[in-house]
């Protein structure tokens, strides 16, 4: 059956007339509530997904998926262990690294820095680093020997450019007959990188592994072995295999262990935001209920006449189901379209708003990223649309049932 009659009557009820104009206004606000609720939910969840993907991607781009440490101090010899780890199924690369704190000074200005020593070939093989070098010395690799790589924000803070010199002071001093004196060394800025994450751009200094060994007085030893896997989301099997071949003096930590509080906070925040923003759609659904109840009350005489002319209770139910469902369906589709368009152009919209308001709406020192990310998950969008449509349909059930129960005799007697 086409139910053309029910759709025709529902369409007339949705069109504004002078007598029931107030009801149409409420229906309009219900439509706007559904639209804004769906759009807001899609935009916020996409931004949350973008944050999670960008932050995790940049963290994993500079750090190993699995790290091996020695419980007894510096690791030496480490080459046989690296070769052994490389033979484990699921291990993509295994590289040596040294990391420590240092004091960076330039022309009397001092500040803390995180020094990480890696082999030059391993540094250039990191995908995120190979695409993030914004300036480097011409005719050089920009890394190796006395050349180090520093972050963009660190360079801006100390007013450094490629070719400039900086002094690093190690935390462990040199013992002399006259006491302990600081161990310092002068390096040249060979390259400046921008990985899009403020924490790394503002504090990290990458130097060759042999230079880091000499700087931290570690001889030929290292502090950790970084292991990369093909898929950072499924590394558990590889981690167990690596742990099985290691002796008890070594410990293994994966990237989720290292960043557990940060990663869990993102997960909890995403779930809570979804629940909170869903309440916007719930409020809009209650508006649909109130507008339909008022419509039933206002159209009592019309319903009674339709019943006396042969309309069944099922027809009356369908009329008001169509009326409320139309608001929900159109509002959901419009909200989905608005949310998708907004997410596709969110960075351009941010730049436009910043220019209009003359304010920084996305400070990279607070949010860790230099650009506002947004990544839509098709599964989440479908879930949001289904929730909106489900709440909209549910909101029509009680008013439609109440309209069908209306007694024609009693309704006409009151007229």
Describe, in plain words, how this protein is organized in 3D.
Helix content is 56%, strand content 19%. The chain is of the alpha+beta class and 415 residues long. The chain has a 6-stranded mixed β-barrel. Helix 2 (21-62) runs antiparallel to helix 11 (260-298), helix 2 (21-62) crosses helix 13 (313-344) and helix 2 runs antiparallel to helix 16 (378-404). The radius of gyration is 32 Å and the shape is elongated.
Which terms would index this structure?
6-stranded mixed beta barrel
Distance between the termini: 34 Å
Tally of contiguous helical segments: 17
Order of helices and strands: HHEHEEHHEEHEEHEHEHEHHHHHHHH
Q: Into which percent range does the helicity of residues fall?
A: 55-70%
Supply Rg.
Answer: 32 Å
Based on CA inertia axes, which overall geometry fits? elongated
Strand order of the largest sheet: 2-3-8-5-7-6
Low-pLDDT segments, ≥5 res:
none
Q: Strand percentage, roughly?
A: 15-25%
Find the count of extended strands (DSSP E, 2+ residues). Answer: 10
Query: How does the major sheet shape up?
Result: 6 strands, mixed, barrel
The chain-level mean pLDDT equals 84
* Structural class assignment: alpha+beta
SSE blueprint:
Blueprint: H1 4-14, H2 21-62, E1 66-70, H3 79-86, E2 93-106, E3 109-118, H4 120-125, H5 127-130, E4 133-136, E5 147-151, H6 152-157, E6 165-176, E7 179-193, H7 198-203, E8 204-208, H8 209-215, E9 224-228, H9 236-245, E10 250-254, H10 255-258, H11 260-298, H12 300-308, H13 313-344, H14 346-357, H15 364-367, H16 378-404, H17 408-413
Parallel strand pairs: 3-8, 5-7
Antiparallel strand pairs: 1-9, 1-10, 2-3, 2-6, 2-9, 4-7, 5-8, 6-7
Helix pairs in contact: 1-13, 2-11, 2-13, 2-16, 11-13, 11-16, 13-16
């Amino acid at each position: 059956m086409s139910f053309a009659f029910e759709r025709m009557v529902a369409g007339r009820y949705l069109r504004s007339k002078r007598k029931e104009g107030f009801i149409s206004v409420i229906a309009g606000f219900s439509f706007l509530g559904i639209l804004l609720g769906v759009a807001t939910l899609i935009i916020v969840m996409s931004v949350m997904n973008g944050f999670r993907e960008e932050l995790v991607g940049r963290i994993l781009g500079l750090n190993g998926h699995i790290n091996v440490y020695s419980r007894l101090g510096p690791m030496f010899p480490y080459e046989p262990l690296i070769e052994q780890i490389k033979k484990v199924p699921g291990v993509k690369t295994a590289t040596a690294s040294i990391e420590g704190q240092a004091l960076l000074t330039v022309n009397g200005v001092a500040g803390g820095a995180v020094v990480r020593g890696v082999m030059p070939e391993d540094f250039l093989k990191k995908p995120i680093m190979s695409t993030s070098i914004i300036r480097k010395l011409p005719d050089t690799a920009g890394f190796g020997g006395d050349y180090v790589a520093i972050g963009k924000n660190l360079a801006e803070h100390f007013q450094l450019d490629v070719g400039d010199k900086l002094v690093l002071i190690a935390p462990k001093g040199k013992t002399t007959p006259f006491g302990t004196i600081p161990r310092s060394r002068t390096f040249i800025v060979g390259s400046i990188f921008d990985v899009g994450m403020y924490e790394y751009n503002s504090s990290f200094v990458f130097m060759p592994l042999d230079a880091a060994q000499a700087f931290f007085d570690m001889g030929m030893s290292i502090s950790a072995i970084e292991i990369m896997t093909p898929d950072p989301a499924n590394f558990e099997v590889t981690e167990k295999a690596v742990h099985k071949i290691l002796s008890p003096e070594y410990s293994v930590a994966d990237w989720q262990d290292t960043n557990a509080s940060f990663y869990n906070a993102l997960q909890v925040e995403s779930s809570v935001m979804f629940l909170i923003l869903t309440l916007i759609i719930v409020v809009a659904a209650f508006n649909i209920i109130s507008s339909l109840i008022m419509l039933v009350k206002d159209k009592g005489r019309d319903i009674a006449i339709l019943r006396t002319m042969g309309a069944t209770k099922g027809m009356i139910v369908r009329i008001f189901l169509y009326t409320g469902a139309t608001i929900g369906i159109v509002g959901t589709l419009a909200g989905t379209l608005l949310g998708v368009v907004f997410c596709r152009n969110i960075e351009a919209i941010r730049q436009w708003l910043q220019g209009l308001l003359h304010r920084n709406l996305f400070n990279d020192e607070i949010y860790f990223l230099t650009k506002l990310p947004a990544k839509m998950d098709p599964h989440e969008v479908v879930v949001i649309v289904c929730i909106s449509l489900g709440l909209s349909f549910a909101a029509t059930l009680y008013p439609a049932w109440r309209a069908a129960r209306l007694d024609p005799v009693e309704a006409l007697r009151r007229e």
